[in-house]
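Dear V.,

Thank you for sending over the compound details. I've combined the ligand you provided, LQR7VSFR, with the protein sequence from our construct and run the structure prediction for the complex. I'm sharing the raw inputs here so there's no ambiguity about protonation or stereochemistry in the SMILES, which I know was a concern on your side last time.
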Amino acid sequence: MFTRLIQSTSFSTMVNRKIRTALLQLNVGSDRETNLKHAANKIAEAKKGGAELVALSECFNSPYGTKFFDQYAEIIPGGPSCAMLSNAAKEHGIYIVGGTIPERCDSKLYNTCTVWNSNGEMIAKYRKMHLFDIDIPGGITFKESEALSAGNNLVTFKIGDVKFGLGICYDLRFEELAKLYRQENCDMLIYPAAFNMTTGPLHWELLQRSRAVDNQVFVCTISPARGEKGYIAWGHTQVTNPWGKVLATANSKEEIVYCDLNLSECDEVRQQIPVFPQRRTDIYNTILTK
Ligand SMILES: NC(=O)CC(=O)C(=O)O
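Below is the predicted structure of the protein with LQR7VSFR bound, written out as structure tokens.
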């Protein structure tokens, strides 16, 4: 178990643009109650480490796989996982990005991220928009759409003057989503995730650096720790700054990654390399509508 502390560079005088974040890369097993207790203990540890915002991984309360979604699904915010997240946020007076849990709503299932404020109130709910359907012979075949429905909404939330956009795992591959969040003026994109042993080494770091550079935002991803059976997660929870520099990356084992982030860095990069206002939408839009 490692604990890591990193600092982003060039802090400015705008104090309300700084935030201490803890990303929890946790071991996850098949027993929900054990997973929830473990997450609650680690949230408490992160609070002791000074975190104001704590984030968990995709499926932090259950194994990740199409055959598990129905079995572990909960009504949001009525189930035990939301109760734990709400209580922990309130008890410790922090914000929590509650990774994802399988959500049951009407007759459908979703892969859903909830966000909780320091009073224990749910302030955001995001449903995975792009379902993970891939088939790489000799690598990995996975078809989330066999079990899940896709969400249809972008979701943002604010802590003080810092604006966050939410995505989940496979959503990271879709530049359009990240670009829309940039258009909404987000400073940081947070993706609870669980890449795997085929796509992790190939694309995990590259995609995060790409989203960060293209949109001049911080990108945080939170993976479960690598297990030994079933869907094997890549791990490597990561923080990338708006210059595209990887500020921290976990290994494959359980770890808390702390980061003191100064979101004013987004303003600096955007001022120094003003690509967003320089986009030629007059041309792109003409081509797109043809
Ligand atoms: N698990 C996912 O949703 C995505 C993933 O592993 C990948 O895109 O690769």
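A first observation: Helices lie at 32-48, 66-72, 80-92, 175-183, 199-215, 264-272, 275-278, 281-288.

Warm regards,
I. M.
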